[in-house]
Amino acid sequence: MASAVTSPPQAGKPQADPARRRRRTGAAPRRLPYLLIAPAGLLMLGFIAYPVLSVFYYSLQHYNPTKPWRNGFAGLDNFTRIFTDDPHFWGTLSFSLKWVVVEVTLQLLFGLALALIVNQTFVGRALGRALVFSPWAVSGVLTSAIWVLLYNSQTGITRYLADLGIGEYGTSLLSDTATVFPAAIVADLWRGVPFFAILILADLQSVPKDLYEAAEVDGAGRIRQFLHITLPHIRDAIVLSTLLRAVWEFNNVDLLYTLTGGGPAGETTTLPLYIAHTSVDAHNFGYASALTTVAFVILLFCSMVYLRLSKFGGDGK
Amino acid sequence: MTAESTLTAAPAPGAAQAPPPLDRTPPTAGRKRRPAWDEVPRWQIYLPLGIYLVFTLVPFYWILLFAVRPAGSTSLLPWPMTTDHFEKVWTERSFGVFFQNSLLIGVAVLVMTTVVALAGGYALARFDFRIKKGFMLALLCSQFVPGALLLVPLFQIFAELRMINSLGSVIIAETVFQLPLSMILISGFIRNVPYSLEEAAWVDGCNRFSAFRIVVLPLLRPGLVAVGSFAFVHAWNHFLFALMFLSSQSKQTIPVGLNTLMGADSVDLGALAAGGVIAAVPVVIVFAFIQKWLVTGFSAGAVKG
Description:
The structure holds 2 protein chains of 2 kinds.
Chain A: H1 18-25, H2 32-59, E1 61-62, E2 72-73, H3 77-85, H4 89-118, H5 125-133, H6 140-151, H7 157-163, H8 180-204, H9 209-217, H10 222-251, H11 254-259, H12 271-281, H13 285-309
Antiparallel strand pairs in A: 1-2
Helix pairs in contact in A: 2-13, 4-8, 4-10, 4-12, 6-8, 8-10, 10-13, 12-13
Chain B: H1 3-9, H2 42-68, H3 84-92, H4 95-126, H5 132-142, H6 151-160, H7 167-191, H8 195-203, H9 208-237, H10 240-245, H11 254-263, H12 269-297
Helix pairs in contact in B: 1-7, 2-12, 3-12, 4-7, 4-9, 5-7, 7-9, 8-9, 9-12, 11-12
């Protein structure tokens, strides 16, 4: 209590007498930090923590505003139904995993390559960076709008490719179950690659330059420099951003909701999209809450496994 | 993943007053940075970059093209040009109203997020207090909580508060999900401003608040611009909350309007393209503004899409 105020390491002065400081600063430091975090804390309690708890609560209830006679405590009924008697759960879950794995892997690879390229010194670098990064700021809905135009069977890119003799006229990439997955993947890559490129580029800047100079003196080529200097330095950042991106891709519904609507024939419905349909369209809040709880557990489990496997923050350094 | 490591990883563009060291061109054109055998051949830069640029820019070109060329035209050049689609979308499809709503939401989220996160970030950077560790943990965990999965309970809360169909619901929801990240970033920025600067200002007679305002705030400006822009772009772009919480046409936002255009039975491509261009304009402006801070301003530990 005596040192309610601590100086960070940069502050050269030793800890001054706290009583004197308090008088000088005119504030009551013991209560001040709580006052400062109160707005943020209250907002997060009310609009994140409480909703999460209520999801857990409703997952154990039958709750459907349109069928009030059935409402009441359900025990584990909802969960039993998910795992044994739901025609959509496993399908949407496996599509979600496929979507996340393919998206994040490709985004990471292209993003890394792009970051390495624009980290070089060359004429036009500033402009190149700005252009390459620009889709990052584009929303999921706008991305959908753009690619709906590009994929349109009458006036889209396939028409002009057909003019050149590639493919057939009237190809509708988004309504064919064979092409909808790659088509959606490409659209999301367009927006997602810059995210990784920006993050990796930020970390590339933090690699000490003299390491490369030393490596050059030792005769290490570019590939060995990349493997032995660059990669170990940016590994932790890559692990973290991959994880965050995977969670984000799993949860993100904007793009698929507007681009394919989960179709054709439910072919591109992710688990969160299915949850949204269950709660918003079918009003089955209890069941949707149970699905949400399962999604939380899956996310938590995958995150922990991933951090383990990648030996995040390992002792190797 | 400890709280500390995430925080210290965030570089503060505000700490150094020098411009970010991003676009440093080599001092003299004639001097080679590296020995010739190790210089990356130019084609290895320009060829892949060029190919990627085509992939990036063709979609942008496509939407611009559809927005300005007359309906029914199949020309690949934006000529003759027309503003028909823009006029139609702006008035008939109410994008003028949507634009106002989106702008209002974006600015309100920007202001609320920055102010609340600044207060919280200062507390996290400068004080030790009993619940600090737990609070930090909550911030990090909340990055994994998807707003999309909380639609129903959030809807119920806003219904309780009688805020359904008022912009306030969307403003609050967007702010809340923007806060954890913003607070982590801002506390990192503040940490990078030496505490001794503040202490010196106290000696000169400032109280804690005026010392913060006079000494720290100016140094935080680039960081705050980045965080604020991030919040604005996010609120401008985000779709689900507005779709769920705002029911009447006069309250809807640009992304919801775009979705409506796409969902129509026969999509009016020209109108959709023009609407898309309108949706992109503010974001492009903000992006051009913050682009040089993007790379230095955000660290991996603290950014979510």
